[in-house]
Design a protein that fits this description.
The chain is an alpha+beta fold. It is 47% helix and 14% strand. The protein folds into 3 domains: 121 residues, Butyryl-Coa Dehydrogenase, subunit A, domain 1, CATH 1.10.540; 107 residues, Butyryl-CoA Dehydrogenase, subunit A, domain 2 (Beta Barrel), CATH 2.40.110.10; 152 residues, Butyryl-CoA Dehydrogenase, subunit A, domain 3 (Up-down Bundle). The protein binds flavin-adenine dinucleotide.
């Protein structure tokens, strides 16, 4: 594997970086990353940024032209995503479900009409999507989904509840896993639907997280009509298509997340120079130096793992169960890095944003609290270890699940 860019790719990287620097200067009205008052305001800023990317010809350049892309090599999309992850992750975050999960699933499993109708509006920033998989009784075990979809003429009628749905309060559409047949083995009775979030009967209630943000939500569906042409694949294929979505969720972002984390580690070094213990900067203390070095090493492992995934994807096909390795790496490294910054801040780690004594304006306190969700979202660490054990290493199924199956 050779991770170096070709001359042409390097020229493209420089061209995109100059465009990004100039555009960020305009939208940030200066050089400081923006913070947002609410998730909805954050979502609007991300849509606006996506529109700018699209108009400048940098949105999903590797997608076919008929779906809004430019048919360019995937490496160019990688360059765009990596550069944005390092320079402005805030403009990608509210679109992470839309661009990272929904659009590749529609591209891989959708009908021709679905691809032509939905993909261009995703790429140009018009539509934000959310992912309605989890329910109060279905998380790790997605086969327990009980939201019911009953076919009536040319549409399905949906009743049920989803939970932990990130970005639902700003979403125009959702991808939904629903039960269309309760009389067959559980995983064969699920179907995968696209749902208009503005349809009558859809109610979204935001949930306040430990950070104080309202990133995720409950969705209640009361006799919601979904036209039959919004079914992805065949009826009964929902489980298989949901697994495809989850594999994209677990495999695609590793190299990008590594770039965002490396930026965080640069800032962690700055904090270690600023904070003093017994009159000396903590960066001089061997215990903290170990933690700083460890954070950097683990993030570089993640980055190399991400490149390995991308090399495999460039050779064709959709991501496989190896995506679980990257999910474990980014989530657990991310948590350890945040914990390390709390250690090195010492008593100052208790001082939150808004206080004159907060370190780095309390950025790391917010990030530390948010990192608690890393090992739950996109599948818990225990589930990733089960997948790696069973599907990558070929170990026997875990006893509790083997009995239930
Ligand atoms: C920040 C955040 C954003 C999220 N966004 C979304 C979203 O947009 N859309 C969406 O659909 N969902 C979303 N989720 C939900 C997430 O996918 C689920 O929380 C996750 O899959 C776990 O499901 P659960 O909460 O029901 O826990 P459970 O599945 O009930 O698990 C509880 C505990 O049991 C363990 N466990 C379960 N089964 C096994 C097993 N077989 N072996 C070993 N241990 C096991 C788990 O690891 C966990 O520790 C989000 C969650 C978070 C934290």
């Amino acid at each position: 594997m050779d991770f170096r860019f070709t001359e042409e790719q390097e020229a493209f990287r420089q061209e995109f970086t100059s465009w990004l620097e100039q555009t960020l200067h305009e939208v940030r009205e200066g050089d400081t990353p923006r913070s947002f008052e609410s998730m909805v305001e954050w979502g609007e800023a991300a849509r606006d940024f996506q529109k700018r990317l699209f108009e400048a010809g940098y949105a999903a350049r590797h997608y076919p032209e008929e779906y809004g892309g430019q048919g360019r090599p995937t490496e160019e999309e990688l360059i765009v995503s990596e550069t944005m992850a390092a320079m402005c992750p805030e403009y990608r975050h509210p679109l992470v479900v839309t661009l990272g999960l929904v659009s590749p699933t529609i591209l891989t499993c959708g009908t021709e009409e679905q691809k032509k109708k939905y993909l261009p509006k995703i790429l140009d920033g018009t539509h934000v999507w959310c992912q309605g998989f989890s329910e109060p009784n279905a998380g790790s075990d997605i086969v327990n989904v009980s939201t019911r979809a009953v076919k009536k003429g040319d549409h399905f009628v949906l009743n049920g509840q989803k939970v932990w749905t990130s970005f639902a309060q700003m979403a125009d559409y959702a991808v939904m896993v629903v039960r269309t047949n309760p009389d067959v083995p559980k995983h064969k009775g699920l179907s995968y639907l696209l749902m208009d979030m503005k349809a009558p009967g859809v109610e979204v209630r935001p949930i306040i997280q430990i950070t104080g943000d309202q990133e995720f939500n409950e969705i209640f569906m009361d006799d919601v009509k979904v036209p039959i042409d919004m079914l992805v694949g065949e009826e009964g294929q929902g489980w298989m298509i949901a697994i495809t979505t989850l594999m994209f969720e677990r495999a695609m972002g590793d190299a990008m997340i590594a770039n965002t984390q490396l930026k965080g580690i640069e800032n962690m070094f700055a904090v270690a120079r600023e904070v003093k213990r017994s009159g000396r900067p903590v960066i001089e203390d061997p215990r903290f130096r170990q933690e700083l070095a460890q954070a950097w090493i683990e993030t570089m492992v993640l980055k190399c793992h991400g490149y390995r995934n991308i090399s495999q994807l460039l050779e064709g096909g959709v991501p496989g169960p190896e995506g679980s390795i990257g999910k474990l790496l980014w989530s657990e490294t991310g948590q350890r890095t945040n914990e390390a910054v709390m250690h090195l801040q010492g008593p100052l780690s208790q001082v939150m944003k808004g206080s004159p004594w907060s370190v780095d304006e309390g950025r790391w306190q917010h990030s530390f609290l948010r990192s608690k969700g890393y090992t739950i979202e996109a599948g818990t660490s225990e589930i990733q270890r089960n997948i790696i054990g069973e599907r990558v290493l070929g170990l026997p199924k875990d006893a509790s699940r083997a009995q239930r199956a």
